[in-house]
From TrEMBL:
<dbReference type="Pfam" id="PF01220">
    <property type="entry name" value="DHquinase_II"/>
</dbReference>
<dbReference type="GO" id="GO:0003855">
    <property type="term" value="F:3-dehydroquinate dehydratase activity"/>
</dbReference>
<feature type="binding site">
    <location>
        <position position="71"/>
    </location>
    <ligand>
        <name>substrate</name>
    </ligand>
</feature>
<comment type="pathway">
    <text>Metabolic intermediate biosynthesis; chorismate biosynthesis; chorismate from D-erythrose 4-phosphate and phosphoenolpyruvate: step 3/7.</text>
</comment>
<feature type="active site" description="Proton donor">
    <location>
        <position position="97"/>
    </location>
</feature>
<keyword id="KW-0456">Lyase</keyword>
<dbReference type="GO" id="GO:0009423">
    <property type="term" value="P:chorismate biosynthetic process"/>
</dbReference>
<feature type="binding site">
    <location>
        <position position="84"/>
    </location>
    <ligand>
        <name>substrate</name>
    </ligand>
</feature>
<feature type="binding site">
    <location>
        <position position="108"/>
    </location>
    <ligand>
        <name>substrate</name>
    </ligand>
</feature>
<feature type="active site" description="Proton acceptor">
    <location>
        <position position="22"/>
    </location>
</feature>
<keyword id="KW-0057">Aromatic amino acid biosynthesis</keyword>
<feature type="binding site">
    <location>
        <begin position="98"/>
        <end position="99"/>
    </location>
    <ligand>
        <name>substrate</name>
    </ligand>
</feature>
<comment type="similarity">
    <text>Belongs to the type-II 3-dehydroquinase family.</text>
</comment>
<comment type="function">
    <text>Catalyzes a trans-dehydration via an enolate intermediate.</text>
</comment>
<dbReference type="InterPro" id="IPR036441">
    <property type="entry name" value="DHquinase_II_sf"/>
</dbReference>
<protein>
    <recommendedName>
        <fullName>3-dehydroquinate dehydratase</fullName>
        <ecNumber>4.2.1.10</ecNumber>
    </recommendedName>
</protein>
<dbReference type="GO" id="GO:0008652">
    <property type="term" value="P:amino acid biosynthetic process"/>
</dbReference>
């Protein structure tokens, strides 16, 4: 099974950025642990702060991978383009968020991805990614 985790803007700062919300672990360290825990999964990772790069990556793997786990971060609430990319592909997408977006600012309550995602996992910290992975296994 081939699964791609895609992280959007500012998630490259995990471990440094607002540890009270996002924790103190880097995503790279977490990803290595996830790969170790699921050796039978061909697990890939991509991060970009650029909206168009995220859309291009979704389109690139959206017909050949078994699943995409997508944390579009702030683009979740602003990018019709990312929402359209998710709608256009055949690979199922699981939307994830580290924090509980509904306990934060009201603009974070809207997602352009959710209507076309297979499912949404919100608020379980980094564990959100593993829950998403388990859902596609």
């Amino acid at each position: 099974m081939k699964v791609l985790i895609i992280n959007g803007p500012n998630l490259n700062l995990l471990g440094k950025r607002e540890p009270e919300i996002y924790g103190s672990e880097t995503f790279e360290d977490y990803f290595k642990q996830l790969q170790s825990n699921y050796p039978s999964v061909d697990l890939h990772y991509f991060q970009s702060n650029i909206e168009g790069e995220l859309i291009s990556k979704i389109q690139e793997v959206g017909f050949s991978f078994d699943a995409i786990i997508l944390n579009a971060a702030a683009y979740t609430h602003t990018s019709i383009g990312i929402g359209d990319a998710v709608k256009a592909i055949s690979t199922p997408v699981i939307e994830v968020h580290i924090s509980n977006t509904f306990s934060r600012e009201s603009f974070r309550h809207q997602s352009y991805i959710s209507p076309n995602a297979k499912g949404v996992i919100i608020g379980f910290g980094m564990k959100s990614y593993e829950l998403a992975l388990q859902s596609v296994l």
